[in-house]
Amino acid sequence: MAGETVIRIAYGLPCLERDDPYVAVAEKAVMPMFVAAIPGNFLVDHLPILKKIPEWIPGTFKHHAKDWKEWALTMLNEPYADAKKIIVRGFPSPYSHVKGCLRSYGIDIHRRAETLNRRSSQTVWNRWTQSRRTLKSKST
């Protein structure tokens, strides 16, 4: 329920009560931060020479990082692109951080402003996700 609220406020997008694709992508993209934050979780933490191994070798940190980057970019770009489409069509939510930023810059904003807008919307999402995980870990 809180995830849907954050998506509605940040992006102005309608959400499903269960199995929402935006929430699923965000949870998938945030999980690697927890995995990578554990010291010694990867062999490269103990043997820095492994940083030189090519990323095409399966099981290496670089192989995982490539997937993680793709998930993070999907988490950033998909909801923003969908919100922008809705705004351009003229059906925006009355409460949307993205809508407010686009109105400030205009629909034809340049790349730098668009990146700033996406990242500021994502900050709202990341803070909610972190607090949600903290609450889950305290309750168990």
Q: What gyration radius follows from the Cα positions, in whole Å? A: 18 Å
- Tell me the distance between the termini: 19 Å
* pLDDT averaged residue by residue: 75
The helix content, as a percent range, equals 55-70%
List the total number of helices.
5
Number of domains: 1
Q: Characterize the main sheet.
A: none
- Beta-strand residue percentage: under 5%
Structure description:
The protein has 140 residues and is mostly helical. The protein has one domain (2-132). It has helices at residues 2-11, 21-37, 61-89, 97-105, 111-139.
Characteristics:
single chain, 140 residues, mainly alpha, 5 helices, 67% helix, elongated
Layout of strands and helices, then pairs:
Elements: H1 2-11, H2 21-37, H3 61-89, H4 97-105, H5 111-139
Helix pairs in contact: 1-5, 2-3, 3-5, 4-5
Gist?
The protein has helices at 2-11, 21-37, 61-89, 97-105, 111-139. The chain is mainly α.
